[in-house]
Protein backbone atom coordinates (compact mmCIF):
# COMPACT_ATOMS: atom_id res chain seq x y z
CA UNK A 1 0.00 0.00 0.00
CA UNK A 2 1.21 3.48 -0.84
CA UNK A 3 2.61 5.49 2.12
CA UNK A 4 2.26 8.93 0.55
CA UNK A 5 -0.53 10.82 2.38
CA UNK A 6 -3.73 11.14 0.37
CA UNK A 7 -6.46 13.47 1.59
CA UNK A 8 -8.27 16.72 0.78
CA UNK A 9 -5.22 18.88 1.54
CA UNK A 10 -2.59 16.78 -0.19
CA UNK A 11 -4.77 16.64 -3.32
CA UNK A 12 -5.69 20.35 -3.26
CA UNK A 13 -2.02 21.27 -2.88
CA UNK A 14 -1.28 19.70 -6.28
CA UNK A 15 -4.15 21.34 -8.17
CA UNK A 16 -3.13 24.60 -9.85
CA UNK A 17 -6.14 25.40 -12.02
CA UNK A 18 -8.77 28.13 -12.34
CA UNK A 19 -11.80 25.90 -11.66
CA UNK A 20 -11.18 22.19 -12.31
CA UNK A 21 -10.77 20.54 -8.91
CA UNK A 22 -10.66 23.89 -7.09
CA UNK A 23 -13.04 22.38 -4.52
CA UNK A 24 -12.00 18.90 -3.43
CA UNK A 25 -14.05 16.46 -1.38
CA UNK A 26 -12.25 13.37 -0.12
CA UNK A 27 -13.67 10.25 1.53
CA UNK A 28 -11.91 7.20 2.90
CA UNK A 29 -14.91 5.21 1.71
CA UNK A 30 -17.93 6.08 -0.40
CA UNK A 31 -20.43 4.13 -2.51
CA UNK A 32 -19.31 5.64 -5.81
CA UNK A 33 -17.68 9.02 -6.49
CA UNK A 34 -20.08 9.49 -9.43
CA UNK A 35 -23.06 9.05 -7.09
CA UNK A 36 -21.40 11.34 -4.55
CA UNK A 37 -20.97 14.04 -7.20
CA UNK A 38 -24.66 13.76 -8.11
CA UNK A 39 -25.57 14.29 -4.45
CA UNK A 40 -23.18 17.27 -4.26
CA UNK A 41 -24.85 18.65 -7.37
CA UNK A 42 -28.21 18.63 -5.58
CA UNK A 43 -26.54 20.65 -2.81
CA UNK A 44 -25.53 23.26 -5.44
CA UNK A 45 -21.85 22.32 -5.62
CA UNK A 46 -19.96 24.47 -8.11
CA UNK A 47 -18.71 23.65 -11.60
CA UNK A 48 -15.40 21.80 -11.30
CA UNK A 49 -16.05 20.25 -7.89
CA UNK A 50 -13.94 17.10 -7.51
CA UNK A 51 -14.88 14.08 -5.40
CA UNK A 52 -12.11 11.60 -4.61
CA UNK A 53 -12.32 8.34 -2.65
CA UNK A 54 -9.77 5.90 -1.32
CA UNK A 55 -12.31 3.08 -1.61
CA UNK A 56 -15.65 2.62 -3.38
CA UNK A 57 -18.11 0.07 -2.02
CA UNK A 58 -20.29 0.28 -5.15
CA UNK A 59 -17.97 1.54 -7.88
CA UNK A 60 -19.62 1.64 -11.30
CA UNK A 61 -18.15 0.80 -14.68
CA UNK A 62 -19.63 1.27 -18.13
CA UNK A 63 -22.51 -0.83 -19.43
CA UNK A 64 -23.80 -1.53 -15.90
CA UNK A 65 -20.59 -3.30 -14.87
CA UNK A 66 -18.98 -2.90 -11.45
CA UNK A 67 -15.62 -1.19 -10.90
CA UNK A 68 -13.93 -3.07 -8.09
CA UNK A 69 -10.54 -1.85 -6.86
CA UNK A 70 -8.81 -2.40 -3.49
CA UNK A 71 -7.99 0.65 -1.39
CA UNK A 72 -4.61 2.33 -1.23
CA UNK A 73 -3.28 2.28 -4.76
CA UNK A 74 -5.71 3.70 -7.27
CA UNK A 75 -7.30 6.97 -8.22
CA UNK A 76 -11.08 6.97 -8.05
CA UNK A 77 -12.46 10.43 -8.69
CA UNK A 78 -15.34 12.27 -10.33
CA UNK A 79 -15.62 15.85 -11.50
CA UNK A 80 -18.91 17.75 -11.52
CA UNK A 81 -19.54 20.01 -14.51
CA UNK A 82 -22.33 22.47 -15.18
CA UNK A 83 -22.10 23.22 -18.87
CA UNK A 84 -24.37 25.62 -20.80
CA UNK A 85 -24.32 23.60 -24.01
CA UNK A 86 -27.01 21.25 -25.32
CA UNK A 87 -27.24 17.70 -23.90
CA UNK A 88 -26.34 16.11 -27.26
CA UNK A 89 -22.75 17.38 -26.96
CA UNK A 90 -22.06 15.93 -23.52
CA UNK A 91 -20.95 12.43 -24.56
CA UNK A 92 -17.86 13.93 -26.23
CA UNK A 93 -16.62 14.98 -22.79
CA UNK A 94 -15.65 11.36 -22.19
CA UNK A 95 -13.13 11.68 -25.00
CA UNK A 96 -11.97 15.03 -23.64
CA UNK A 97 -11.26 13.36 -20.29
CA UNK A 98 -9.61 10.33 -21.93
CA UNK A 99 -7.24 12.65 -23.78
CA UNK A 100 -6.54 14.60 -20.58
CA UNK A 101 -5.67 11.47 -18.59
CA UNK A 102 -3.44 10.22 -21.42
CA UNK A 103 -1.63 13.56 -21.62
CA UNK A 104 -1.15 13.59 -17.84
CA UNK A 105 0.23 10.05 -17.77
CA UNK A 106 2.53 10.90 -20.68
CA UNK A 107 3.92 13.74 -18.60
CA UNK A 108 5.01 11.14 -16.04
CA UNK A 109 7.24 9.74 -18.78
CA UNK A 110 5.05 6.71 -19.51
CA UNK A 111 4.42 5.54 -23.07
CA UNK A 112 0.64 5.77 -23.12
CA UNK A 113 -2.12 5.74 -25.71
CA UNK A 114 -5.90 5.88 -26.03
CA UNK A 115 -8.06 2.97 -27.05
CA UNK A 116 -11.01 4.71 -28.65
CA UNK A 117 -13.26 5.99 -27.31
CA UNK A 118 -11.98 6.42 -23.79
CA UNK A 119 -9.77 3.71 -22.34
CA UNK A 120 -6.26 4.85 -21.57
CA UNK A 121 -3.80 2.04 -22.25
CA UNK A 122 -0.17 1.21 -21.53
CA UNK A 123 1.46 -1.76 -23.28
CA UNK A 124 -1.92 -2.39 -24.95
CA UNK A 125 -3.66 -2.94 -21.59
CA UNK A 126 -6.13 -0.65 -19.83
CA UNK A 127 -4.93 1.55 -16.96
CA UNK A 128 -7.91 3.89 -16.85
CA UNK A 129 -11.67 3.74 -17.32
CA UNK A 130 -14.06 6.67 -17.61
CA UNK A 131 -17.78 6.80 -16.89
CA UNK A 132 -19.72 9.93 -17.84
CA UNK A 133 -23.25 10.50 -16.59
CA UNK A 134 -25.62 13.38 -17.27
CA UNK A 135 -28.56 14.75 -15.29
CA UNK A 136 -31.23 16.81 -17.09
CA UNK A 137 -33.80 19.32 -15.88
CA UNK A 138 -36.44 20.77 -18.23
CA UNK A 139 -34.47 19.45 -21.19
CA UNK A 140 -31.30 21.26 -20.11
CA UNK A 141 -28.14 19.88 -18.53
CA UNK A 142 -28.28 20.09 -14.73
CA UNK A 143 -24.93 18.38 -14.36
CA UNK A 144 -22.42 16.18 -16.11
CA UNK A 145 -20.35 13.90 -13.89
CA UNK A 146 -17.18 12.38 -15.31
CA UNK A 147 -15.82 9.50 -13.23
CA UNK A 148 -12.24 8.41 -13.67
CA UNK A 149 -10.59 5.26 -12.34
CA UNK A 150 -6.81 5.01 -12.80
CA UNK A 151 -4.79 1.94 -11.83
CA UNK A 152 -1.76 3.71 -10.41
CA UNK A 153 0.24 1.64 -7.91
CA UNK A 154 -1.72 -1.63 -8.04
CA UNK A 155 0.72 -4.52 -7.69
CA UNK A 156 -1.76 -7.18 -8.73
CA UNK A 157 -4.60 -7.41 -11.22
CA UNK A 158 -7.58 -9.72 -10.73
CA UNK A 159 -6.99 -13.01 -12.56
CA UNK A 160 -9.92 -12.57 -14.98
CA UNK A 161 -8.71 -9.10 -16.05
CA UNK A 162 -5.00 -9.89 -16.44
CA UNK A 163 -5.00 -9.98 -20.24
CA UNK A 164 -6.86 -6.65 -20.50
CA UNK A 165 -5.83 -4.48 -17.55
CA UNK A 166 -2.63 -3.28 -15.92
CA UNK A 167 -1.32 -0.49 -13.68
CA UNK A 168 1.35 2.17 -14.03
CA UNK A 169 3.36 0.35 -11.35
CA UNK A 170 3.16 -3.02 -13.12
CA UNK A 171 4.30 -1.49 -16.40
CA UNK A 172 7.11 0.74 -15.14
CA UNK A 173 8.16 -0.73 -11.78
CA UNK A 174 7.76 2.74 -10.27
CA UNK A 175 5.24 4.05 -7.76
CA UNK A 176 3.55 7.37 -8.41
CA UNK A 177 2.15 10.10 -6.15
CA UNK A 178 -1.61 10.03 -6.75
CA UNK A 179 -1.96 13.63 -5.57
CA UNK A 180 0.44 14.79 -8.26
CA UNK A 181 -1.24 12.76 -10.98
CA UNK A 182 -4.68 14.15 -10.04
CA UNK A 183 -3.18 17.66 -10.29
CA UNK A 184 -1.83 16.87 -13.75
CA UNK A 185 -5.17 15.46 -14.94
CA UNK A 186 -7.09 18.49 -13.65
CA UNK A 187 -4.69 20.86 -15.42
CA UNK A 188 -4.97 19.03 -18.73
CA UNK A 189 -8.73 18.64 -18.43
CA UNK A 190 -9.32 22.32 -17.73
CA UNK A 191 -7.34 23.31 -20.84
CA UNK A 192 -9.06 20.73 -23.06
CA UNK A 193 -12.53 21.56 -21.73
CA UNK A 194 -11.99 25.28 -22.45
CA UNK A 195 -11.14 24.32 -26.04
CA UNK A 196 -14.17 22.04 -26.26
CA UNK A 197 -16.70 24.69 -25.19
CA UNK A 198 -15.46 27.06 -27.90
CA UNK A 199 -16.80 24.80 -30.64
CA UNK A 200 -18.84 22.09 -28.85
CA UNK A 201 -16.81 19.53 -30.72
CA UNK A 202 -13.29 18.12 -30.71
CA UNK A 203 -11.91 20.15 -33.61
CA UNK A 204 -9.39 22.02 -31.44
CA UNK A 205 -7.89 18.80 -30.03
CA UNK A 206 -8.43 16.30 -32.83
CA UNK A 207 -4.75 16.16 -33.75
CA UNK A 208 -3.70 15.70 -30.12
CA UNK A 209 -6.22 12.87 -29.77
CA UNK A 210 -5.28 11.11 -33.00
CA UNK A 211 -1.59 11.33 -32.11
CA UNK A 212 -2.32 9.23 -29.02
CA UNK A 213 -4.74 6.79 -30.64
CA UNK A 214 -3.61 3.20 -30.02
CA UNK A 215 -5.29 1.75 -33.09
CA UNK A 216 -4.32 4.43 -35.60
CA UNK A 217 -3.69 2.86 -39.02
CA UNK A 218 -4.16 -0.62 -37.51
CA UNK A 219 -6.68 -3.32 -38.33
CA UNK A 220 -9.65 -3.33 -35.98
CA UNK A 221 -12.80 -5.34 -35.51
CA UNK A 222 -16.00 -3.45 -34.83
CA UNK A 223 -18.07 -5.54 -32.44
CA UNK A 224 -21.50 -4.41 -33.57
CA UNK A 225 -24.03 -7.10 -32.55
CA UNK A 226 -26.09 -6.70 -35.72
CA UNK A 227 -23.35 -5.80 -38.16
CA UNK A 228 -19.79 -6.75 -37.04
CA UNK A 229 -17.05 -5.82 -39.49
CA UNK A 230 -13.31 -5.27 -39.86
CA UNK A 231 -11.30 -2.40 -41.25
CA UNK A 232 -8.42 -0.05 -40.61
CA UNK A 233 -8.84 2.69 -37.99
CA UNK A 234 -7.93 6.07 -39.46
CA UNK A 235 -8.58 8.37 -36.48
CA UNK A 236 -11.51 10.33 -35.06
CA UNK A 237 -13.51 13.12 -36.63
CA UNK A 238 -14.57 16.31 -34.87
CA UNK A 239 -17.65 14.60 -33.38
CA UNK A 240 -15.46 11.92 -31.85
CA UNK A 241 -16.60 9.16 -34.19
CA UNK A 242 -13.96 6.64 -35.23
CA UNK A 243 -13.33 6.57 -38.98
CA UNK A 244 -12.71 3.05 -40.27
CA UNK A 245 -11.72 2.17 -43.83
CA UNK A 246 -13.37 -1.09 -44.86
CA UNK A 247 -12.33 -3.57 -47.57
CA UNK A 248 -14.16 -1.88 -50.45
CA UNK A 249 -12.45 1.44 -49.64
CA UNK A 250 -15.51 3.06 -48.07
CA UNK A 251 -15.03 4.94 -44.81
CA UNK A 252 -17.47 4.02 -42.08
CA UNK A 253 -18.06 6.12 -38.98
CA UNK A 254 -18.30 4.32 -35.65
CA UNK A 255 -20.31 6.09 -33.01
CA UNK A 256 -19.08 5.68 -29.41
CA UNK A 257 -21.53 4.06 -27.05
CA UNK A 258 -22.95 1.83 -29.77
CA UNK A 259 -20.16 -0.67 -30.24
CA UNK A 260 -16.79 -1.87 -28.98
CA UNK A 261 -13.58 -1.90 -30.97
CA UNK A 262 -10.85 -4.52 -30.66
CA UNK A 263 -7.53 -5.07 -32.31
CA UNK A 264 -7.68 -8.13 -34.52
CA UNK A 265 -5.46 -10.14 -32.18
CA UNK A 266 -5.82 -8.46 -28.77
CA UNK A 267 -7.85 -6.10 -26.62
CA UNK A 268 -6.35 -3.02 -28.32
C1 LIG B 1 -15.20 1.65 -17.31
O1 LIG B 1 -16.02 0.73 -17.24
O2 LIG B 1 -14.19 1.56 -18.00
C2 LIG B 1 -15.45 2.92 -16.56
C3 LIG B 1 -14.95 2.82 -15.15
C4 LIG B 1 -15.11 4.09 -14.35
C5 LIG B 1 -14.68 3.91 -12.92
C6 LIG B 1 -14.66 5.21 -12.16
S1 LIG B 1 -13.89 5.05 -10.58
C7 LIG B 1 -14.46 6.63 -10.13
C8 LIG B 1 -15.85 6.79 -10.69
N1 LIG B 1 -16.85 6.29 -9.75
C9 LIG B 1 -17.47 5.21 -10.20
O3 LIG B 1 -18.34 4.58 -9.58
N2 LIG B 1 -17.01 4.89 -11.42
C10 LIG B 1 -16.02 5.83 -11.88
Automatic annotation (TrEMBL):
The keyword Ligase applies. It comes from the Bacteria. Keywords: ATP-binding, Biotin, Ligase, Nucleotide-binding. Its EC number is 6.3.4.15. Gene3D superfamilies: 2.30.30.100, Bira Bifunctional Protein, Domain 2. GO terms for biological process: protein lipoylation. One of its GO terms (molecular function) is biotin--[biotin carboxyl-carrier protein] ligase activity. Residues 9-197 form the BPL/LPL catalytic domain. GO terms for cellular component: cytoplasm. InterPro entries: aa-tRNA-synth_II/BPL/LPL, Biotin_CoA_COase_ligase, BPL_C, BPL_LPL_catalytic, Transcriptional_repressor_C. It holds the Pfam family BPL_C. This is biotin--[biotin carboxyl-carrier protein] ligase.
